[in-house]
Amino acid sequence: MAKQNLDLGRQWYVLHTYSGYEENVVQNLKQRVDSMDVEDKIFNILVPTERKVKIKNGKRKTVEEKIFPGYVLIEMIVTDYSWYVVRNTPNVTGFIGAGITPTPISQAEIEVLQKRMGVEEPKYKIDVAVGAQVKIIDGPFKNMDGKVDNIDEAKGRIKVLVSMFGRETPVELDFLQIKKI
């Protein structure tokens, strides 16, 4: 096989890994960078994550979720040797690119991802208006329909009028507990 000379300068690339092994790949890569003497070729290794708000057992929790499960970003200078070190790391299935040549991702894409990762508190997206019909999808009033009476966007809370016992009763819910009909 003809020896190819890969040197595209310092850029970000995407590695495909076995899903669920992203952190394991990061650890393995960091160890290999040290032991195989490629600190001058491999710089940053990143598993892009973002914070999301979820409801579990009626309680709001902020969780860290992978933006791209099964992928790891790596900032490196691709040479035959650095490519070999990364490609032969346990649980790495390959680079994203054409054939065996990795395709770098743009600096603009990296900046968008870093902004998305840097958000401390997730924003609440409430896409209903006062008067809208909604279905309650969580909590003690699950599967009941109601009408939005009040929205507190800062707290992510919403007051819904639910018809019970022949009259409308106000119920305060988290916005994650409702869905627009």
Overall structural class, as computed from helix and strand content, comes to alpha+beta
The secondary-structure element order is EHEEEEHEEEHEEEEE
What level of helicity do the residues show?
10-25%
Q: Stretches where pLDDT falls below 50 for ≥5 residues?
A: 1-7
Query: What is the topology, as strand order, of the major beta sheet?
Result: 12-11-10-9-13
Query: Quick one: biggest sheet?
Result: 5 strands, antiparallel
N-to-C span: 61 Å
- Strand elements, count: 13
| Gyration radius over CA | 24 Å
- Oligomeric status of the shown chains? single chain
Average predicted confidence as pLDDT: 87
Strand content: 35-45%
Broad shape:
elongated
Number of helices: 3
List the defining traits of the structure above.
single chain, 181 residues, 5-stranded antiparallel beta sheet, 4-stranded antiparallel beta sheet, 3 helices, disordered N terminus
